[in-house]
Amino acid sequence: MSAFRLGAATAAYQVEGSVREGGRGDSIWDDFCRLPGAVADGDSGDVACDHYRRWRSDLDLMVALGLESYRFSIAWPRVQPDGRGRLNARGVAFYRRLAEGLLDRGIEPVATLYHWDLPSARQDAGGWAVRDTAERFAEYAALMADRLGDVVTQWITHNEPWVVAFLGHAEGVKAPGIRDWVTALRVSHHLLLSHGLAVRALRAGGGPDARVGITLNLAPVHAASDAVEDVAAAARLDGHLNRWFLDPVLRGAYPPDMVELFERSYGLFDVVRAGDLDVIASRLDFLGVNYYMPKRVRAEPRRAPLGLAEAGPRPPVTAMGWEVDADGLHALLLRLRRDYGDLPVYITENGAAFDGEEVVDGRVEDPQRVAYLRDHLAALERAVADGVDVRRYYAWSLLDNFEWEHGYSKRFGIVHVDYATQRRTPKRSALWFRDYIARARNGGAQVADQRTGSASSP
Ligand code: FCB
Prior knowledge:
Bound molecules: beta-D-fucopyranose
Order of helices and strands: EHHHEHHEHHEHHEEHHHEEEHEHEEEHH
Distance between the termini: 24 Å
Number of helices: 16
Radius of gyration: 21 Å
Largest sheet: 8 strands, parallel, barrel
Structural class: alpha/beta
Strand order of the largest sheet: 1-2-3-4-5-7-10-11
Number of strands: 13
Strand content: 5-15%
């Protein structure tokens, strides 16, 4: 088995559709999409890419692209509609067929347990703001290890808990749409606690082959100027975005500067109980990193609690307005090794949305995405040459899909989806990626050298 694998990622709510099929329960994203004005054009994941019904041909497409690994997420409300108690056998069967279908095709299944679709019944009971949800999540994790552990050995507990906690509960731009910092901070702790509990459950139930990690959205943070205020603002955003999650998971402690800042604004961070941080710091097999862009900030004292504002990105930017900076991936990977040690890294998402991609004569030319992937893979290769232990890379995303509050207006796929017909058309970037994977397999890239263990220099 080679050490390095290339693949693509998706998430359940973004691709599956069939939200009322097969005994699935509602999730907070079904609810959020019904709120007027919450999602662009009133879109929802009701149909999405119809992957729940088209999964077989989607797996065949992955084979055609030569993917070695596929990162998908399990919809908690599909397998356990109320988020507690009874499992929905039809939901579990779907993910079993998917995993078996991948294995049959020589593709490694990598399952994320939580890519943002909390069962609505759990939200009604207080959601991630209450500790009970962490315990229910651990039960769900144990059940998945028990039912799927023979076909899935690679597990990711959470996807981007920063986004869930702060975009979902402080800024309210994502489900469940709450705007309250105290709630968001509590949520962040319960997400981390649930991660640690799930790591233990997956190891206990998944057997000796289980490999467990968490996926964080991380970014290098730059100050907009050399002014001390801006430099301090950058340190705060780094504390908020990166260290608030990395430190507890990998060092067993929240960063003291951020605890102090949050407690100054909101009083005691009172949801942390004795022993929680030991659970949160349960040993991991890998760290999942989603990298899209660096952050630039300046001091903005009027904005509580962090006292900062995002500064304008440097061009070029994507259709999301996200700065394109492949060197940022290299810098991030080196920083992770320097500050947190040698844990294997999976790049669990990396990619970009661009406007104006059309199917012409059965083809989609997306030169900007080709350049984006090429430059980020080159940066990854440099990090590997510099000694970082990178084991997986996933393009986000396999398919154009439901991009959360942006609905279907932002296309991240390496494969184009015509939502009216559900026709899939691999974009130029997918064909480029296919060739890159083939070259890597034949030893043509540094990442390939790592597989065979031979030393290489750029
Ligand atoms: C990440 C999410 C993923 C997708 C990309 C563009 O934050 O994990 O679902 O929306 O951004």
